[in-house]
Amino acid sequence: MAKQIKELEEEIRALSGEDKVDLLRALVDELDAPPDSDVERAWLETSQRRYRELIEGRVEGIPGPQVLQRLRERLGG
């Protein structure tokens, strides 16, 4: 098995850049699972609820620069 993988790797490295990109896209497409409609629906419901809460004044938004600064501090950057 290891020999086959090594041979495949050598063949792939010999491909043009464009062919490598095409191969990668095909492999990623094959590995990606189809979208889960339940997850999509849950995200939509959550985003709509949060938007209503913001518009109705039940929650207060945080300015983007402040959010980014907090993230930098947490990540040590």
Considering the chains and any ligands shown, give keywords for the structure:
77 residues; mainly alpha; 0% strand; elongated
Give the low-pLDDT segments: none
Question: In angstroms, what separates the terminal alpha carbons?
Answer: 44 Å
Q: Provide mean pLDDT, rounded.
A: 92
Question: What coarse outline follows from CA principal-axis ratios?
Answer: elongated
What do these coordinates show?
The chain folds into 2 domains: 30 residues; 39 residues, no CATH class. Helices cover 75% and strands 0% of the residues. The protein is built from 4 helices and no strands. It has 77 residues and is an all-alpha fold. It is elongated and about 60 Å long. It starts with a helix and ends with a helix.
Write a brief caption for the model.
The chain is mainly α and about 80 residues long.
Secondary structure layout:
Blueprint: H1 2-13, H2 17-31, H3 37-55, H4 64-75
